[in-house]
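Honest question from a wet-lab person: if I give you the sequences of every part of a complex, can you actually get the arrangement of the whole thing, not just the pieces? Trying it with mine:
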Amino acid sequence: MTAGTRLPRPAARRPRALRRFGRNRLSLLGAGLVALVLALALFGPLLAPYPAHVAGGIDTAARFQPPSAAHPFGTNELGQDVLSLTLAGARVSVLAGFSVVLIGGTTGTLIGGIAGFLGGWIDEILMRLTDLMLIVPNLILAMTVAAVLGPGFQNMVLALALGWWPGYARLLRGEVLAARERPHVTAARAMGASQARVLVRHILPNCVSPVIVKMSLDMGFAILMVAGLGFIGIGVRPPVPEWGTMLATARAYMPDMWWVAMAPGLAIFVAVFGFNLLGDGLRDSLDPRGGR
Amino acid sequence: MPPLMPPLLEIRDLHLTMATRDGPAQVLTGVALRIARGEIWGLVGESGCGKTLTGLSVPRLVPCPPAHYPAGEVRLDGEDLMALSERRMRALRGRRIGMILQDPATSLNPTMRIGDQLADVALAAARHDPALLGPGPARTAARALAATMLDRVGIASARQRLSAWPHEFSGGMRQRVLIAMALIGAPDLLIADEPTSALDVPVQAQILALMQGMAADRGLGMILITHSMGVVARACSHVAVMYAGSIVETGPVVEVLDRPAHPYTRALMAAVPGRHTPRGTLRALPGTVPDLLAAPPGCRFAPRCPRATPACRAARPPLRPLGAGHAVACAHPDAPAHG
Amino acid sequence: MADPPLLELRGVSRLYRPRRSLLARGPEVVALDGVSLRIAQDESLGVVGESGAGKSTLTRIILRLERPDAGQILYRGADVARFGPGALRAFRARVQIVFQDPQAALNPRMTAEEIVTEPMLVHRDTVGLDRRGRRARVAELIETVGLRPDHLRRFPHELSGGQRQRIGIARALAAGPELLLLDEPTSALDVSAQAQVLNLLIDLQDRLGLGYLFISHDLAVVRYLCDRIALIRQGRLVEEGPAAQIFDAPRTACARRLIDAAPDLGAPLRSAGRTTGTD
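Yes, you can. This is the full assembly:
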């Protein structure tokens, strides 16, 4: 065609979003922190220098040792190595946060997607239900449910997820409603495409990125909520190590035995911070038209 | 014969570099324009030629960074705008330089009544020029001025329309409101970026006629940014044809459209279907505007030019006068015969 | 008896009653009022009118994305409203649409290749091509609309406005249509891209013998492309006839107004009141 005129940009397929993501240092830092936290969740218990303490063993002779070479983050009121407990605690905290977001996100996405695509009275019913759920504060709902069902990992996840889906339902319904009216969706319908094809190929792919971003941002928040439930004592029960529970116990010995709180506090901070940076980075890079 | 008074607007050798993620793009490379009061200049070219950025550079509305001006001057009545503080510049915007943006649908605030939007602009302008408003309380005077302006741009029963919402107006009426808004501060220079592209053809003609009338009545200098030679022929007194960041042909509309010298000008003119263009005979310029990150050396139009020679690709031709205010930047122009 | 026309509209009307609130509906708005039109095979009919004249409603009704309140749409003599699911799908393969804003009309998450392939997937049964056949057809289509094979790997936002509209046209051609509904296909493009697309459309019609329903507000563009012109104003057909007749002997004020407004570089430029060079 036109020799000499350079076209806007050499074609590159999928990795484009990835490259854009890679250009932002903060997103990379976020991804690094998240990778670290996930690695801890997988291998944390194996890395713990005192596996016996993780299993619930105590060493009353070594109570409240300040940080040293043997115990980089000191020991707690039972003489357990704080580093070991924190490493092992990653599994519960991250797994719980992940489950909450996954269950809540999937449920909400499904409900919102159905409501937005089908419309009519189904939409009315589902959205009024969503509004109802949104009225109840998350933490209080979770506390009530956990109190009724009793403490424990599964109950805690269930309690949190129950309060988690309405946000996703609202988000996705709005996205679907907007996408449904776009000309390219009309184009697909005019082409003779089936309902399922229109939804799966043309509407949903243009709605998922805000969901992914919200999930990533919510991960940090969910970990915080899990820790919060642990902190007020209706989460996972000791001796299973969990960051929130560890913080709650350590609080009694603040400020003198500050190191007991430091490792779990730092872990929560890193996880929340990492997931937030990752979420922001994803938001910027997932928009196919995004600049920068 | 140098004029005694400086022109209303003078742009000299304006360069603009835009930082992109793939490196700096030379978006403007030596734009020069002289606009006197009462003249309507059509700034014409394809998308991506730098028309809009030239227009936005005058009131300094291009965000820096990513933009950067390595060289050039923009003078309004002799005063260098590039050297002004942001505060002084803000005082000029809306007051001495009016802007009309392309999309009348999104340029009005949907949550404010038309009259309030107009009055706000009038009040802001009156802060720098109290004589703008008549006597009496400022708010009342501003609303009265708003009604006068709506009337002037041809909106019937203007006083009642002050309390209308933007969504109650059609596209053409919204564009009239925007023109009223741009003119309410009694500017000396009006910059309109594709003011009619979003409108129906018959409404386009009305709006262009309105703008012509305003320029004549108020001795306004005007820059009309467009991609259509049809709009230029209908509304402008002068034209500057832009290609890939610089002006390739300029002069009075009658001169340039009657005797286009640059192949690009000819191509733009040949692309507009007229009333008697036989089916299939429209000559479309092939290709697209070059990537400004790696613009060809020499004449940037050379890759699409039917007359390009190796010399064209080696050095960029300067703008050379052809007489009667007509100038062209081409090594092989269609030499127009001038009496 | 002569063959029925490719597409025929008989007295088509469409009313809207916009919702004011949950319960109350506002007054009726007439989008189309008894419009009758015919398009023969390989003929191009231009429908011209201002925005709000009901032009876009027309395309939606023809494609049965909306139902008319009165009147009939006949495709080769068959009533479109009575098509069952199978016949409707076949009809939608035969009648395709090209939209005004190519940026919005292409799915931003699909590559040009996926976009052009999709109609062949949707109409797999009638098009009857396997994977390799589809690839070959896409390559052929992309050349037909004047693009290069490497454009196929790009996403819509990586193409220029004119290139995007070419992809939109290639998509419309993919299922092998007989009639294209062109809904202001060039009004979002700049002049040189518009000229390229107009020439492409003429070329396609000459080669493929397509029928066009070309909707626009620019009479000069319609004149360039169409054999016959229909003027619509406030949902009503105002004037219809051969393009040359409408231009040379307009019968209505509406037609005259549209003709006067159309840009024309051929007209004498030295009009009164225009300032010539001042220096």
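Two things worth pointing out. Chain C has one domain: 7-19+26-261. The radius of gyration of chain C is 20 Å.
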